[in-house]
């Protein structure tokens, strides 16, 4: 399980998530991580395309491997296309359910799927 902070809600996929809130999601991406040159990362932040970042349990974005489990640059966990309609993230929101990981602290529902359905209706 990883904690991710919503740092941009530019994407319609995140319309139901609270900006600035931290969510807990299942993860199984030991080999994958976000990597990009510094100028690209700067542009992504400026455009509001960095949607989520790895954070500690209190919502503080962290490069510590305890929280940024795969060493993603700038703790980036999820990004969007410039218009926000495409959203890619490392943690597996699709593996979350009301009966899964019920003993794990933190909100687990980013409401990605509900938000997507509402946008595309």
Q: Which descriptors would you attach to this protein?
A:
2 helices; Rossmann fold; alpha+beta; 5-stranded antiparallel beta sheet; 121 residues
Total domains, how many?
1
Report the strand count: 5
For the CA atoms, what is the radius of gyration?
14 Å
Q: What oligomeric state is this?
A: single chain
What would you say the CATH architecture is? 3-Layer(aba) Sandwich
The third-level CATH topology is Rossmann fold
CATH class membership: Alpha Beta
- The helix content, as a percent range, equals 10-25%
Estimate the global geometry from the Cα principal axes: globular
Give an overview in words.
With 121 residues, the protein is an alpha+beta fold. It has a single domain (2-115), classed as 3-Layer(aba) Sandwich (Rossmann fold). 15% of the residues lie in helices and 18% in strands. The protein is built from two helices and five strands; from the N terminus they run E-E-H-E-E-E-H. It has helices at residues 38-46, 112-120; strands spanning 2-6, 22-25, 50-54, 76-80, 87-89. The chain has a five-stranded antiparallel β-sheet. Strand 4 and strand 5 (87-89) form a beta hairpin. It is globular, with a radius of gyration of 14 Å. The protein starts with a strand and ends with a helix.
């Amino acid at each position: 399980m990883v904690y991710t902070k919503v740092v941009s809600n530019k994407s319609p996929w995140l319309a139901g998530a609270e900006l600035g809130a931290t969510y807990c999601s299942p993860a199984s991406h030991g080999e994958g991580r976000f990597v990009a040159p510094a100028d690209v990362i700067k542009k992504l932040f400026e455009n509001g395309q960095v949607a989520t970042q790895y954070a500690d349990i209190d919502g503080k974005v962290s490069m510590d491997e305890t929280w940024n489990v795969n060493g993603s640059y700038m703790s980036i966990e999820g990004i969007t296309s410039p218009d926000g309609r495409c959203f890619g993230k490392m943690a597996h929101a699709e593996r979350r359910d009301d009966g899964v990981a019920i003993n794990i602290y933190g909100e687990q529902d980013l409401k990605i799927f509900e938000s997507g359905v509402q946008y595309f209706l």
